[in-house]
Every structure is written in C-alpha cells, then in structure tokens.
Sequence to fold (543 residues):
Amino acid sequence: MSSSDTSMINAINGLEQSTVLFSQVYCIFLLIFGTVGHLLSIYVFTRPALRYNPCIRYFLASAISGSINVCIVVPIRMLQLGYGIDIFIYSLPVCQVLSYFLGWIRLVPVWFISMASIDRFLASSSSATLRGWSNIRITYRMIPMIVLFISLIYIHYPFNQAILLSPQPSCTFATSSYRAFFSIWNLIFWSWIPTILMLVSGLLTIRNIHKTSDTSMTDAINGLQQSTILFSQVYCIFLLVFGTVGHLLSIYVFTRPALRSNPCIRYFLASAISGSINVCIVVPIRMLQLGYSIDIFIYSLPVCQVLSYFLGWIRLVPVWFISMASIDRFLASSSSATLRGWSNIRITYRMIPMIVLFISLIYIHYPFNQAILLSPQPSCTFATSSYRAFFSIWNLIFWSWIPTILMLVSGLLTIRNIHKSKNRTVPQNIQNNIHENNKRMDRQLIRMLIIQCFVFSITTTILSIIQLYVSITNNLIVKDNYVKARDQFAVNIGNFIALFGPCMSFYFFTLSSQLFRRHLVDGFRRQQPIQNTTNTNAQQRHI
Fold:
C-alpha cells in the first residue's frame, strides 16, 4: 500500500472518529439543555396569564414538538452516529417509518413559529376582520392542520428510502436523483417558505406597530429594554460559568510539559489567558451595565475613555494570537529551513508582547472619540456619528477581515506544505517516527485553528456589520425612539455574540482536537499511579 493510500485511510478514519466524538458530545449537550429548556418553556407557556394568547399557543406547540425532537430524534441519532447502533437497518419497514417520522417531526416546530408570526400580524392589524382571525379557537384548528399538512407533503419520503449494503449497511436514499430532488424540496419547505412567512409577517407587523398609538410604541421600547436586561443576565452568567471553567482547563492543558515548548501552543496559551481576561473582567462589567443598570462608564469622562479603550482593546487580542498561531503552523510546515527557523519558542516570546503593543497602538484613537451623552439616557458612547461610521469600518477591517484573511491564507499554505511533504523521503526508524508524530500534531493543531478561525470570523463580523448598518442609517434617515431602541438592542446582542469566541474557545478545542482531549484526560489521570503507590506502601507497612 502506498503512502498516499495510507494517508487517505488515516484521513477517512479521522473524519469518522470526529463524527463519532462530535455526535456523542453534541447529542449529550442537546439532550441536557434541550430537555431542561423545553420543560421550562412548556411551564412558562402554560401559565394562566399566557395560556389563552393565540401566539403563545403556537409557541407551546413548537416547544412540545421540539421536546419530541430532543427526547426521540436526538437519542436515535446519537446511537446511530455516536455508538454505531443503527436501528434503521433492522428491516425496510423500520427504515421507512423511522425515516419518515424523524424527517417529518423536524419540520413541525419551524412551521408553528411561522404561524405565530402570522398571528402577530393579524393581531396588530388595524382591520377588525383581520384581528378576528387571531383568536384561540382558530389556533386550536390550525395546529392539527399544520401537522396534517406536513404529514402529507412529506409522504413521498419513506417510499424512496432503501437499505444499501455498500460500503456499509445504511438506510438512505434509494436513488441519487431522489437525493437531488429531496435536497431542493427540503430547502423549499424547511427553509425558504417558513423563513419568507416569518420575514414578511414580521415586516407587516412592524408596519402595523408604527401605525398604532404612542402607547404601543412605548410598550414596544420597554419590551426591547426588558429583553436586553433578561438576555444580559442569563447570557453573562452562562459565559462566566462556562468561560471561567473552560479557560482554566485550557491554560492547564497548554502548560503541560509535552506541549509548553511548542510555539503554536504558546500562542494558544496567550489567547486563552487574554480570553480569561474577557471572561473575568469584560463580561461582569457588561452584565452590570446592561443587566442591572449599574453603568460605571458614566461616572466621569476619564473612566468612560479608559474603560472603553480597555474593553475594546482586550477583545481584539485573542483573535490576533490565533492568527499568529496559524502563521506559525505555515512556517513550521515549510520545506524551507529558513522559514522553519522562524517557528521557534524565542520568536514566540517576542511576538506576543509585540502583538499586544501593536493592538494598543492601532486602538489608541478610540478613547479620544468617546463621550458621555445625556440623551435619551446617560451613556458612554461615540462622540460623533461620523466617528461611529469610521469605527464600524475600522472594526470590520482589524477585528474581522485581517485576522480572518491571515488565518485563511496561512491555513491554506500549511495544507499545501503538508501535501508536499508526503512526497519527501525521510530517514527510517527513529527519525521517521518523529516525523510522523510531528505531522500528526500539525494536523491536530490545524484542525483547532480552522475551528477557531470559523468561530471568530462569524462572531466578529456580525457585530461589525450591525454597527456599520446603524452608522449608515443614522446618516440617511431620521429615526424615531423605537427604531433607535431597536438598533441599540441589535448592537448589544452583537456585542455579546462577539464575546462568545474569546470566552468559549476551550469547548471548540475539545470538540476539534484529539490531541487536546488526550492531554486534558491525561492531566486528570496522572495522580492515579501516585495514589496507588501510596496505598500499596501503606498496606506493606501495615503488614
């Protein structure tokens, strides 16, 4: 067997193992949080003050169907993909019935949410006839009609399922042409139609709200503010608990003797430390500010400027360290001895403070353009709308685009270097084993980097786009208080989403890298031989 075939088999085995591990971890996550979440949702939606609201009834139906997904679909998929127990292949009828049920039940929740959106449009209409369609009796009729509708449009699915024996027994599509048809069908009925219904009815509802009285406008603004408070309290507690534990474990793993001398690991360690600062300082300050209305930014202008500078600057640091780790992997995998020489621990120790200094300098303009505005309420924010627009573009470039491009380009170059290294002849025996171990570690580190690149690019881009949209629309249109409150709500949510990457990196490391998991588990096991030896010595002394 050639080396390329061996590499291909190893790659396939790696994907299969990744699927197994991801299925086990992700399904357990869905089972725990999904079960608790849906039980709490059902409890809330059946409260006396809510149970007779038509929209709440659709939410309740969605929660019940969602709980069926959690309690039935998730365990079946976990057994199938995570533990190799595939009940679909016992017989063709079992394959067809289970495939039909598991596919059908997935569509139900999103269609109930679409009906809830339509109900809100009807309830907010100025027409008494349309408002009459938003009542509990019609809701009770619509819920079984939606279930029947989805059952009928999905009826073709089981008759096009078959048990194929190659390359391994599986219940799947009978023909490739039906697979193509079903992909388009799924896109239309599971994604496009419900999304269009929600979007159109949502926009029409907003239009209806704008036509209503100032009281309704005030209620809508208060609703957005209450949503911000609740979201801030819950989400920040989540980040504090899981982020603190995750970063402590990441720092523990990255300081293990087998890893601490690796330059790439040093960048990961620096990213974990800066991420822990985000968790322990930035998150509590934002939670006090948005969740409990304790805004320490507005005590004085110097406090506003210094805190804004620090909280903005520290958010950029983790993603830049991950970018440096990507560049280090490219250098380490290069065929050029000169480039490989740049991947060493001494240069890493120099680059880390240089990155910190670089971000400090490029961010220096930020505090001088912060001000405490008193209307509509005291807040530390941008001094001018023109600077807000400039900073939105600046943020998009230095927080999203440049780090993402660095990670993407260096990642592609690293993959190219690894493919080239397959054709090189290396000495046998000891050096060959060292070479294979290094390649294995490279693959694991690249996988960690790819996941981090994806997470950081998505979460940072969302906030940058929201800020850019708010800045542009502020200069183009005159906004009422509701639109301003909605924009601020979107910015606050974007800020919290941007904190997700720096705070949750441990869990992405754990899911993506066998190397990280092995060292994490080994770290907890290393005390066992010492304890066993101590117990043995104690028994001998007793004898």
Observations:
- The first helix runs from residue 3 to 45.
- The first strand starts at residue 161 and ends at 164.
- The domain at 227-532 is CATH 1.20.1070.10 (Rhopdopsin 7-helix transmembrane proteins).
- Residues 7 and 415 are 13 Å apart (CA to CA).
